Amino acid sequence: xxxxxxxxxxxxxxxxxxxxxxxxxxxxxxxxxxxxxxxxxxxxxxxxxxxxxxxxxxxxxxxxxxxxxxxxxxxxxxxxxxxxxxxxxxxxxxxxxxxxx
Amino acid sequence: xxxxxxxxxxxxxxxxxxxxxxxxxxxxxxxxxxxxxxxxxxxxxxxxxxxxxxxxxxxxxxxxxxxxxxxxxxxxxxxxxxxxxxxxxxxxxxxxxxxxxxxxxxxxxxxxxxxxxxxxxxxxxxxxxxxxxxxxxxxxxxxxxxxxxxxxxxxxxxxxxxxxxxxxxxxxxxxxxxxxx
Lengths: 101, 181
Hints:
The structure holds two protein chains of two kinds.
Chain A: H1 4-22, E1 28-29, H2 30-37, H3 46-58, E2 62-66, E3 72-76, H4 78-84
Antiparallel strand pairs in A: 1-3, 2-3
Helix pairs in contact in A: 1-3
Chain B: H1 12-25, H2 30-39, H3 46-76, H4 86-108, H5 111-131, H6 139-160, H7 165-180
């Protein structure tokens, strides 16, 4: 049985990391992340992005800056870069594809 | 409008399976995916699956390109502190990203929509050039300079994004035209 919700949230986490990798060294506003995710998940919401960013932050992969206007601004931190670059192992919870050499 | 994606019309569970397969396979092996979908009773062509996987890749390319462009524009038009604040750079990055997405959509839209999207995109670029330079004393001169810079950057970015020569030229002409207005 396919657990669609699990696939969705874990894939989203990976796509967020990829988006932020492409936004290095600046980082990105949440709406840019959301629009990027909507390339795959057309119905993705700002709330979903925040939930997943918060999770990635709690795993110490992403820095989040809550701007005075209420928008979130995210940037990969050192461990986030390591996970995206396959330098370190990735614990469960993020749908990182196997590395293609 | 471009035709509605067949892939997105799949039942949620099948779509979830396909998406995980795309992630696992890193957007490769479309033939195998097509065969697997057929077994499950869905007629989805290889190219439709490819387009679906590509949507994400194209957006990621736009993120990268807009990030590079924001930095280049900041370097081309240094402020008194000799480097625009990170806040301005990230705003410019978001604006350019939105413009690039419009351009990507324009590639697949019908001619009328395409013109409309390209006009909007050009205006977006001109607006962000103006906004990021409003603090300058010699705004007119610099606006032209930045529009030229922007046009040059957009040309590079658009080429990298695989747009046709004709589209790139039209965008450039639009940006420079708006800047002169």
